[in-house]
What does this fold into?
Amino acid sequence: MRKKIFVRAPVLSQSGYGEQSRFALRALRSREDLFDIYIQPIPWGQTGWIWEDNEFRRWLDERIGETQVLLQEKHLQPDVSLQITIPNEFEKICPVNIGYTAGIETNKVAPIWIQNGNEKVDKILVVSNHAKTTYQKTVVEAKNHAGKTIEYKLQTPVEVVWETTPRAEPEPIEELNLEYDFNFLVISQMSARKNFKKTIKWWVEEFIDQEVGLVIKTNTLGNSIIDRHLTESKLNRFLKDYPERKCKIYLLHGDLTTGQMSYLYSHDKIKALINLAHGEGFGLPMFEAAREGLPIITIGWSGQIDFLRHNEKDYYQKVKYTLGPVQKKAHWDGVIQPDSMWAFADQGSYKMVLKKTKKNYDKVKATANELKDLITKKFSDEFLYQKFCNEVYGEAPVDDDEIDRMFDSLTEES
It folds into this structure.
C-alpha cells in the first residue's frame, strides 16, 4: 500500500542536518511505489540554503509548493510524519511519527530527548551506533504522579540508518594554488565542538619549519562575505604567534559544488583529512573523504567509528583522547548537557600522528585504499536507501479526524 509521508526537515539548509534530510528524501524517492512524499522545510540555525540548480532541487521545490497548498487548504492527510531535527522539536502530528536525528556527540542525551522520544514519536532513527547506544544508556531522574523520584529511560525503539551523499566528478577550484606537494585538509566549522583552534595551532607547531600546507574549508556561521571577513580575522588571530612559519595555510570559504568537494578529496597534493572534533553524530566530511581513499586522522570516539572501523580493525590514523566534561561555552540547553562529557584529543599524540602520516605515507595511503573498498561495498546507495525505506514504511491505522486536528496547527505555522 502506498503511504503518504510528511517530511518536516531543513531540506534546503547548508548544514549536516540539511545533508541528512536530503539523503532521507533521495531514499524515499527511490521507492515512489511505496511513498507519496510531502515536504515542509524548516530553518537550521543561521545556515544558508543550497543554491545548485539541478533536477533534485527542482523536485524539492515542486513538492514543497504542493505541500504548502494542501496544508493551507487542509487537504493533506498523511499516514506518517518523518521529523528530521533535534529531538527537542519532535511533535505528535500524524498517526505514526518517526524522529530522525544526527544528534549525539556526547556521552548522554538531554532529559527532554528522552521525554519527547517516549511521548511524541513511535520510532527514532539515528545515524550511528554511538548515537543509538548513548540514547539507550542515558538515565534521568524524574518524578512520578506520587511525587517519588524514579529513573526514566527511553522506551521507544531506536534504529541506526547510516547516511551518504551524492558523488560527482572533480571540478577544479581556481583559487586553490598549493605551493607545496604535501598538504593536509580540514573541513570544519569554526566552533568549540569542532576543536578548531587547537586543530590548527598544534598543526602549525608541528610543521612550523617545514614545507607542508594545510587547506582549511571553514566558516563561522554562514557563507556570506561578512562571515568570510570574520572568519579570516579569527584565523589570523590564531596564527599571529607564528610570524616566521614556513608551513602554509590556505583558507577556503563560501559555497563549493559537490564536484569541488570531490576535487579536494582527490587532489594529488592533499594527502590526509584531519578531524579533532570533540564528537560527531556521523562525521560526513570524514565519510566523503574516506570514500575517495583519502587517509583520515581523527580520534576513536563517536559516530565516525561506524565507517572507520571494520571487523575490529581501525582503518584510520588514530589520535589518542580522553573523555572530559563539556566546556561551559559549549553548553546548549536541551541539547548539550552541562553534566555530559565528550572527547579531548591529546596534543602529543596528534603531533606524532601528523609526523608519522607524512613519514610513512605509502603505508597510510594503502590503509586508506582498503577502507575505500570497504565503504564502497557497505555504504552503497542501493543498500542505504533500502534500509531507510524499510525502517520508515511499517503499518499503522489512519485516523482522519486526528490528522485534521493535528494539522490545523501546522497550517497556521505555514
User: Anything to note?
Assistant: The chain has a mean pLDDT of 92. The longest strand covers residues 3-9.
